Amino acid sequence: MHENKETANPQKSSVNSGVAPKYSPSRFSVAPMLDWTDPHCRYFHRQLTRQTLLYTEMVTTGAIIHGKGDYLAFSPEERPVALQLGGSDPAALAQCAVLAEQRGYNEVNLNVGCPSDRVQNGRFGACLMGEAQLVADGIKAMRDKVSIPVTVKTRIGIDDLDSYEFLCDFIRTVSEQGGCDSFIIHARKAWLSGLSSKENREIPPLDYPRVYQLKRDFPHLTLAINGGVKTLEEARTHLLHLDGVMMGREAYQNPDLLAQVDRQIFGSSQPVVDPVAVVRAMYPYIERELANGTYLGHVTRHMLGIFQGIPGARQWRRYLSENAYKAGAGVDVVEQALSLVADKIPAGI
């Protein structure tokens, strides 16, 4: 990925370009998802929604500071975009937050929700819920160095530390001692042992009322909810109680849902973008990435679900899956896949 000031989106004029937003981008966001929300994914999602806040995959402070690759690379067209950090050392977090601000990120978010063993071994993620003061110290260290928002994504509890009082104490410590005024709450607790990361997204029961209560008890904080949100109708229900909603896998697997977000969640009057036009809006970006040595399939794997529910969607997915990783595969492969579905899309979609 290379930052490039030239916008490669011919649809930019047909959406909310130049219009002052009515709501904060954090009103609706796409969750950080490891191996999924990479720069290619975010660029694609931005073609569908102008106002949604997009998140990077979680990036560790060690990778940013000591890694050989550029873990902060993104395209300016992705904005608004937030960097999610994994780490617990306040000095390292502050150093990475400064780098993120210099690169143009709109927000830095600290991961206090991932329960995987690998994350725990690095002393970050959900295990940090048991170290509220350390989280507060990390947030304060970042806030002292940057002017962009510094936020926390967390769970409602861990293991047997799952009382409402425990959650309130965590929020109170991090907000008062660290200065954090914005939290995304995954409405499940996490089991730090015995469950896989996937199981931790499904087995612990959702407790939306607990998050609603948190907003009533901390009305001065900006609180968004995450976990199990599958429709925009559900998102609007949550917004009756909270400041924001974060959607994860549903937004990824059914990305055309994002085309409705600007109108349904942000109140935009702009027309919904056409999925065929969205695919073709990706062509200049794809050409740019191919020139940089990227395989076509690394971009198109994020686009497979855009025609979900439309006749020809299966053929679209199959053709791309079978051909996008072949040597020399280019935009012509996407155009051929598009021909299998484009004429089957009902008028008005």
Automatic annotation (TrEMBL):
Signal peptide: none
Residue ranges annotated for the DUS-like FMN-binding domain, each copy included: 30-334
Cofactor(s) the record lists: FMN
Active site: 114 (proton donor)
Reaction catalyzed: 5,6-dihydrouridine(20a) in tRNA + NAD(+) = uridine(20a) in tRNA + NADH + H(+); 5,6-dihydrouridine(20a) in tRNA + NADP(+) = uridine(20a) in tRNA + NADPH + H(+); 5,6-dihydrouridine(20) in tRNA + NAD(+) = uridine(20) in tRNA + NADH + H(+); 5,6-dihydrouridine(20) in tRNA + NADP(+) = uridine(20) in tRNA + NADPH + H(+)
Site note Interacts with tRNA, residues: 111, 198, 201, 314, 317
Keyword set, alphabetical order: Flavoprotein, FMN, NADP, Nucleotide-binding, Oxidoreductase, RNA-binding, tRNA processing, tRNA-binding
EC id: 1.3.1.91
Protein name: tRNA-dihydrouridine(20/20a) synthase
Classification of source organism: Bacteria, Pseudomonadati, Pseudomonadota, Gammaproteobacteria, Enterobacterales
This protein's encoding gene: dusA
